[in-house]
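Task card 7
Instruction: Convert sequence to structure tokens.
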Amino acid sequence: MQLTNNPHYQSLLREAQHIKNTSLTDLMKQDNRENDFCFTLDGLWVDISRHYINKALFDSLIKLADASGVREKFSALDAGNPINYTEGRAVLHTQLRKPNRRETDEWQKLSAFSEELRASQNIQTIINIGIGGSDLGPSMVTSALRPFHGKQKIRFVSNVDPSDLNDCLADCDAETTFFLITSKTFTTAETLKNASLAADWLKQAHINPANQMAAITAAPEKALKWGMSQKHIFDFADGIGGRYSLWSAVGLPIMIAIGNKNFISFLDGANQIDEHVLSTPTNQNIAIILALLRIWNRNFLNLPMHGIMPYDHRLARLPAWAQQLEMESNGKSVDIRGDALTQPASPLIWGEAGTNAQHSFFQYLHQGIEQQSLDILIPRNSLGCSLPDGWQESHKTLVYNALAQAEALAIGEDNQQEPHRNFPGGRVSTLISWNKTDPFEVGRLLALYEHITIASGFLWDINSFDQWGVELGKKKAKELETPNMGDDFSPAAKRFLSLLNTEK
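Output:
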């Protein structure tokens, strides 16, 4: 059932028209709002009080979710039903977060290899070569959990631009470098080109690439054919989508970086959110509530963009990861039956780390004509608990800035005498906070965002687990590499190619 066919859609449209004429500042003053619209889960704090909602409207949104069967669809996902309709597959990434995984052969092989590599006296640098879901998640988490790293340097190469790999290898020694080649299909053109260059680099140092390379893939037979050693192939199921795959063997660089014990804590944090989503009533279900807000802002208040602003330098790559998660999952134009959507789905996701973002585009957020919704994320305490007092004061300044921006965006400041100094306010945001950025909390945060995306897809009635939109560009790029590319390309494209072929 598409959103516009939901029995509560029309009444919510009317409520949207009414509440648009209400001051957000007045809404924020409503009795008990700080309790009604703040949700907690073992130290995770989610404050949605700075949105155009009231108690009656919130109840209507809950009815919208229940009429869409969101919780039942989550149960179907957990049961392993094939809810990836276009590919006829189950969606299995949440299974990887359950404790019983640690009894499997897959886990034993993965964890043993991770500990062996971490203990190696020879290997000093591990380089993951992958792109999209084989890069964004692992690189983001590895950066987020830097205080938990072991002695080795963990690096990531994604772009087929040779400067990416070249810069990465500039200070590396072939004798002490190990490569992880991550590709679900083991056909990803960019990844395999970079892998071949890396293999050549090892050969130039008279090293057998099979000894210092491992493959992470759902197509182990292709990795073996490519030249990988059987003992260095780590596979995962087809039902684990690329952008949801960092919990699988794709997370091996994370495991090597932070160790098995911390990786288990990371999985446990995610599993707590999984259990919360499955067992908590809709009106207290944090992921579903945040998905409802995404739909409310996107489809009823017509806010086409959603910004993610982590006030945590180590989470600077979170917006890029969340961008792929949401826009590849929900950037769709048809529903699960193939019918055209009657309302747009995914908002444009963007963001940057605070406080840097305040000195970049926050001018636009405060005084620009177009509005968008925001997530403002902040750990309440710094992980560097042994730092001197002055350093701890800097973290307090960070927290104060995050809260101040949420308030300033919502409330604004009236100055009709000097219009260039007038701040209209009415900019909506969600404040998401936790104690410290450790493996458990990062696991919770990422699982929360995954479930927001999935619940939004359920509400829009789309398949959040395929990504056919990435295929056409790849097909065209492959055609350009053939001598006879055909007549499908424009005269302008052919002229550019002739320029390319004459310049060196």
